[in-house]
Fold:
Amino acid sequence: EAQVTQNPRYLITVTGKKLTVTCSQNMNHEYMSWYRQDPGLGLRQIYYSMNVEVTDKGDVPEGYKVSRKEKRNFPLILESPSPNQTSLYFCASSLYSDPSTDTQYFGPGTRLTVL
Amino acid sequence: EDKVVQSPLSLVVHEGDTVTLNCSYEVTNFRSLLWYKQEKKAPTFLFMLTSSGIEKKSGRLSSILDKKELFSILNITATQTGDSAVYLCAVKGAGSYQLTFGKGTKLSVIP
Structure:
């Protein structure tokens, strides 16, 4: 089944404890992206990747890191999480590096709480 | 900076009603506008509108794009409780690898 998977789906952690949220897609998509969704603010892009080893900042990259060593994986790293990073996170992917040419497929989401 | 404004933010209707959701945008070198439906989980794709495809229809849902006035509408006819969701609008400009999303319209359909 073609899909985008994220792990974990729910995470409660404490300030300063490094964490990684994994994202994997099995559709051989070039483009992958991370978003966070907050009440009243909508979906905001954190980082995106056009292909392996090619990443760039989105609108809200502060406090996050990413890597794209393999085409299928795009982990989101929070080196020192803070309470303002409590949010619902979505990973998404699309076939081509230009997301306007086709739709983005979203993962199921990761609800992160930082205490 | 690209900008997307959706209205209304929230809407409550009865089953069978017809609703119109609005999306206005400002984007450099417009390339495409997308509509997504989000039901307490991941957004799912509905439509993509571009310069070469300014009207789309699927069942009870339809959408048009007005490139001159910089807005799009999403129409849902004969609404059902299963249409209850947040509807998201996103735009992309040429030369950009990013989608800019609006804050969404929360639609509640009551029996």
Chain B has a mean pLDDT of 92. The radius of gyration of chain B is 13 Å.
